[in-house]
Amino acid sequence: MIGILILGQGFIGTYLADLLRNRDFSFAATTTDGRNSTIKWRLPSSSSDVNGYALPSANTIIVTFPLQGAAAATQLIEGYLGYHANKIQPQWIYLGSTRPFKEIPSTRFTKPDIIAGGPRVEAEELIISKYKGKVLNLAGLWGGERVPEKWSRFYTEKEKLRQKLSARGLHLVHGADVARAILAVTTVPESGRWLVSDGSTYDMLQILLRDERVRGLLEELMQEAEVRRMLGADKVEDVRLGESEVTLRIDPSHFWAAVAIQPEYPYAIGGPDPFTGF
To answer: Is 173 in contact with 140 (CB distance < 8 Å)?
Structure first.
């Protein structure tokens, strides 16, 4: 039996695999194509496909990909347990998103918005209630080539930028800190959900205005009186920017207190990635 099985070694799984190697943990990981010495695997279409769950037995299973509803979560878990003849009782850790949390601020005790969360929230609730699993609802992921400055390409249309002006707050967490968070939470006896960010609130507009295309669009939008009132300025140069101008939506303090560590890789607008390896 191995210590940890990562189902889906994508962005987060790669950081986690590097951390586990550094700490000499026994683990295995899957990808859909078997790249980088991983197990070639994808979720079977039915739990009756027993051989489709031919995966190593592990003490902890990390699910990094979205499960669309309670049925999908049940199929995965029961299929895996069935393949191992129900002789193992691994702990399940499922990675979700903070998108369904609308209260200001939201904490681990906030109820997710079912409409915003959709089937993924249904899967989360099942994993917690039936299988005593742990759900980590993650803020915006960044690290390496994945940097918020590149997200400006999503706001090169006026209406998309207009919508963002009223919800500028951005919560982030570095992939390396997520890996540290996952490993740390494996030792926490309590099941349930936690919200995970680096604890800061970033101003998305401050990031977007580094792109001249977005700056040009904002100059056009600020010809409208409503936009000027919203931003409290008459021209782009006078718009107040920064953390003091946005609202904390995600409060991760319960999580970092529970695992007794703190995030180590904050984001600095325009700065280099602080992570250089475990």
So the answer is: yes
Q: Buried b / exposed e across 116-141, counting CB within 10 Å, b at 16+? A: ebebbbbbbbbbbeebebbbbbbbbb
Q: Is the dihedral of CA 189, 191, 197, 200 positive or negative?
A: negative
Per-position pLDDT tens, the chain of length 278:
999 999 999 999 999 999 999 999 999 999 999 999 999 999 998 767 778 999 999 999 999 999 999 999 999 999 999 999 999 999 999 999 999 999 999 999 999 998 888 999 999 999 999 999 999 999 999 999 999 999 999 999 999 999 999 999 999 999 999 999 999 999 999 999 999 999 999 999 999 999 999 999 999 999 999 999 999 999 999 999 999 999 999 999 999 999 999 999 999 999 999 999 99
Q: Report how far Cα 10 is from the mean position of its chain's Cα atoms.
A: 12
Tokens of 219: 């100059």
Structural domains in the chain, sorted by start: 2-145+171-202+247-259 (3.40.50.720)
Give the list of residues 6+ apart from residue 196 with CB closer than 8 angstroms, or none: 98, 136, 137, 138, 139, 173, 178, 181, 252, 255
3-state secondary structure (DSSP) of residue 91: strand
